[in-house]
Write a structure and sequence with these properties.
The chain is of the alpha/beta class. It holds the Pfam family GGDEF.
Length: about 600
């Protein structure tokens, strides 16, 4: 039995460990003729332990739901024994003193005998493996104990592997540029704050923070500098934030601060006002930011909440609306959400109306960023979206994509973009000089999850009659989290038509290698965040080298995004990455300029 269980743990992937533990408990229970076999895990601070896995013989009542968050003190002297690496062996519970902690815990459960062994790693207590006998008392031999100790060692090793895997998964909860909490983690923290506020009846607050005039800075100084500003602002905010509060980056230049355990509503307003002033001053005082531009200011919107009477998304929207109340006044201020901000909600309704008009009036335009293969041959382009607004001029995606995603309008917009891209491919494929060009099109998570997504793409292919091998659909790692098998099925259906798939921004989220090898991918795209510091940071070099080797091992093409200078290109070539795009070659171009770029490129190649 021990050999069989050991082999099962040795072969199990981290994602399978919980199942293997359940199977091991059943095997142990049957072998030892026990009534219950179970596993407890201790919290990181060892203050509490919970029953996480359990097997019960027929007719024996489960205790799993009852034995949660038990204080370590409830285990009495066993806890001290386990910390010392010693098992707890009781052949007859009725022989225990009735007032002992052990008897008080075991007798109400009807347990007659039990054997419990600690799960320890590097002298640290992780948990406990136990056997209960309810129907009779039982003597535990040295062989019983020795066998269980071997199994406990296997379980302990498996749990450690699982912890490593889960730590890797947690990387998906932090923003790759700033290292702060990302949207997913922020949403969870806000929800937890609501529950805590329900219990404590203390107010909490959300502060929606936007860097003033960041677009101008980003456009004039480049993305590298823009990302550095984001990182420095994040550090400045975190420096003054009270312990236990959370700061994270939502998207673009927008940050969110969650502050908890505030006083009553009137005092809470004063506390939030003081905190906002500290945050603004910290950014103003940052010498590193001053070296980039002399004055860096923040627009901040705040909303207070008590309990969970509002949805999390509503709270974020309220803080966002309050922040936008500051912007027209020149920024560098704080505003609180109140009923009068319904005007801001009307603006969102206006944006929805304008987006519908943009779809109907064909106001969306495709821009093309060249993608090249060594030694500098243009193989195609990534399609990027711009909105030719009738009143506000040409708008980048940061002006409307997030709202389009939230409202669901991204589905119709994405379909229009894909159709335009395929029509352009159809035109090029009729021209010998451009027939081999490829186009990469970003697919949003919401668009991909539509039930009829495969049918819509098939319809566009039939309508445009293109060679679909020239079309690459770019997906993000976040799409793989939910319903992975369904994702693979859709990809496989479209792959049958010749469509290829790229995994965009690779390395910024978390993809299990077990999942990665099942995906019908053609290309991995290295996120530009790793390329920015490629020449200065050995860790970034190691990550990029690992991604390239991973792609080569899996037979995937690897393309680097955000190549902005010759040094980065040289380093990538030395690491074995031969596909790339970025400002070093060209910014995203409208169609006419892209075709002119192609013509000049072809002329240069002919001269060579």
């Amino acid at each position: 039995m021990v050999a069989t269980i050991s082999g099962a743990f040795a072969q199990a992937a981290a994602a399978e460990i919980d199942t293997v533990i359940d199977q091991a408990l059943a095997a142990i229970g049957h072998f030892y003729q026990a009534d219950r076999c179970y596993l407890f895990k201790f919290a990181d601070d060892l203050a509490t332990a919970s029953n996480t896995h359990e097997w019960c013989a027929a007719g024996v009542t489960s205790q799993l739901s009852e034995l949660q968050n038990l204080s370590s003190a409830e285990f009495g002297t066993w806890y001290t024994q386990w910390q010392a690496g010693m098992p707890a062996v009781i052949s007859d519970v009725q022989a225990l003193p009735p007032d002992s902690a052990e008897y008080q815990l075991l007798a109400p459960q009807g347990i007659q005998s039990l054997l419990m062994l600690p799960l320890r790693s590097h002298n640290r207590l992780l948990g406990m493996l136990g056997l209960d006998v309810v129907r009779c008392s039982q003597q535990w031999s040295n062989e019983h104990v020795a066998g269980m100790q071997l199994i406990a060692g296997n379980i302990c090793g498996a749990l450690l592997r699982q912890q490593v895997e889960r730590r890797a998964e947690s990387l998906a909860l932090f923003d790759p540029i700033t290292g702060l909490a990302n949207r997913q983690l922020l949403l969870d923290r806000i929800h937890q704050a609501q529950l805590q506020s329900n219990r404590s009846q203390h107010y909490s607050a959300l502060l929606f923070i936007d860097i003033d005039d960041f677009k101008t800075l980003n456009d004039s100084l480049g993305y590298n500098t823009g990302d550095r500003v984001l990182k420095l602002v994040g550090q400045a905010l975190a420096q003054v934030l009270p312990q236990g509060d959370t700061v994270g980056r939502l998207n673009a230049d927008e940050f969110l601060v969650l502050t908890e355990m505030l006083s009553c509503s009137r005092a809470a307003v004063e506390e939030v006002t003081a905190l906002a002033a500290q945050l603004q001053q910290s950014v103003l005082d940052s010498q590193a930011l001053q070296q980039i531009r002399p004055k860096n200011t923040l627009s901040i919107g705040a909303t207070l909440f008590l309990g969970d009477t509002q949805e999390v998304d509503v709270l974020i929207t309220q803080a966002d609306m309050a922040m936008h109340q500051v912007k027209p006044q020149g920024g560098d201020a704080l505003a609180f959400f109140d009923g009068e901000l319904q005007f801001q909600a009307s603006r969102r309704l206006l944006l929805a109306h304008e987006l519908r008009d943009a779809l109907a009036d064909d106001q969306f335009e495709l821009y093309f960023q060249p993608q090249l293969v060594h030694p500098g041959v243009v193989m195609g382009a990534e399609v990027l979206l711009r909105w030719r607004h009738p009143a506000r001029g040409l708008l980048g995606p940061y002006e409307f994509i997030d709202f389009a995603e939230e409202s669901g309008m991204i589905v119709a917009i994405g379909e229009q973009v894909l159709r335009k891209a395929c029509r352009q491919l159809a035109l090029w494929q009729q021209q010998p000089a451009r027939a081999q060009l490829e186009l990469s099109v970003n697919i949003s998570a919401r668009q991909f999850r539509q039930r009829d997504f495969v049918q819509v793409v098939q319809g566009i292919l039939k309508e445009t009659q293109i060679d679909a091998s020239a079309l690459k659909l770019e997906l993000t790692e976040s799409m793989l989290v939910d319903d992975f098998d369904h994702v693979v099925s859709k990809m496989q259906q479209l792959q049958l038509h010749g469509i290829r798939f790229a995994l965009d921004d690779f390395g910024t989220g978390y993809s299990s290698l077990v999942y990665l090898k099942r995906l019908p991918l053609y290309q991995l795209k290295i996120d530009r965040g790793f390329i920015d510091d490629l020449l200065r940071d050995e860790n970034e070099q190691a990550i990029v080298r690992t991604i390239i080797l991973l792609g080569q091992t899996l037979g995937l093409e690897v393309l680097a995004e955000g190549v902005e200078n010759a040094g980065q290109l040289k380093a990538l070539l030395q690491l074995g990455c031969y596909h790339y795009q970025g400002f070093h070659f060209a910014k995203p171009l409208p169609l006419a300029e892209f075709e002119q770029f192609l013509q000049q490129h072809l002329a240069t190649l002919h001269r060579l």
